[in-house]
Predict the 3D structure of the following.
Amino acid sequence: MDFTMGEAAAGLRSELRRLIAAEVPDDFLGAFTDDPTDLATAQKFCGVLAERGLLCAAWPERFGGRGASVWEQTVVREEMWAHHEPRGAQYMGVNWVGPTLMRHGTTEQQRLHLPPIAAGEVIWCQGFSEPDAGSDLASLRTTARPDGDGWRISGQKIWTSYATMAQWCFLLARTSTGGRKQQGLTVFLLPMTAPGIEVRPIRSMLGPHHLNEVFFDDVPVGPADVLGTVDEGWAVVQEVLAFERVGIARYARCERLLQLAPTALGERWETLPSALRGRWARALTRARRARLLAYQVVAMQNTGRVAPGDAAAYRIAVTRLDQESAALLTELAAHVADDKGTRRKFRRAVEDHWRYANAATVASGSVEIQQILLARSLLSGTRRSGAAA
C-alpha cells in the first residue's frame, strides 16, 4: 500500500516547516502560557498562514480557503500539532466550527463567522461540558427558555478552554424536555460579550486559559443565534465531536518527540538498556498506527460520511499513545544532559507533552465513552451482518 499523500502534500509540509522556522521562536511551547508574547506569536502566525491561504487550506474558496484537498489540510494539522500548535486556539474554528457552519449555518451566519475564522482573527470556545454532564453530555442542564422570538439562557459550563479570550461560544443548551435526553437540545452561536456571562478561570498544570467555568445568567439570544433546527442540536454535536476528535493530530507530536530522542541523548543513546530502546521502537510503531487510523477517518469525512465507531477507535489509540509516549519520553529525558541548548529544549518539550497527556484520556470524551461508542458500532455491524445472512 502507498500511504503517501502525493507531491502537493509533501511540498506543503516543507513550506510549513520553513514558515514555522522563520516565524515561531525555537523555544515556543504553545500559546497559552504565563508569557503573553506566546499568544501574540500565535495570533501573528495565524495571519501569516491566512495570507498564504494555509490556515483553512481545504475550505472552499468562497468561504476563505483555497480548495485544497483534505490531505493537505491534514498536513497542516500534523505540522501544527507537532510543533506545539503555533496557531493557538484557531484549530477549533478551523477544524470544526467552520465546517459545521458550512453544513448547517444560514447564509447570514456564514457571512458573519467564516471570514474572521479564515483570517485567524477570532477565537471560539466550546460550551458543552457541565459539572454533572461531562462524558454524558446529553444530561446537561443549561436551559434556554423562550422569550419573545428569542431565548434566555441560564446555567453553567465547565472545562471551557480559551473562554477568557474567546469572542464566540459554540453552546449547547436544552430548549425542551420530554422524550429521550438527546432530544430537545439546541446549538447557539453566542457572543461572549453578551450580558449575563461570567468566566472564572480554573487553575491547573496545563497553564492559564485552558480550563474555565462559564456562568450564564439569563443571557439573551435571538433566533439568528440558533445553528440548525431548534431541539435537534444533538445530531449537529455528534458530527462536531467526530471532527474534533480527529482534528487534533496528537500522534504527530508523539512521533516527532520520539524521533528527536536519539539525537537529544547523543552518545548516551547507545548505552541505554535494550528493553528501553525496544519500548521506543514500539511507541514509534503505535504512533504510525494512530496516524493511519486518523487517515481512515479523514477519508470518510471527505465523502461526507462520519462513522462514530471509526472516530472512537482513532481516539482510543491516540490518547493511549499520548500517555504511553509521555511516560517513555519522560524516562528517556532523564538520561539527557541538562545543558542550555537543544537538549534542554527537548526536556522542556517532553515535560509539556507529559502535562497534556495526563488530560488526554478525558478531553473530548473519555476513553471509556469511546470504548462504548466503538462497541456499539461493532455490535450494530454484527447484527446487520447476521440479518443479511
Observations:
- The domain at 7-122 is CATH 1.10.540.10 (Butyryl-Coa Dehydrogenase, subunit A; domain 1).
- The longest helix spans residues 274-302.
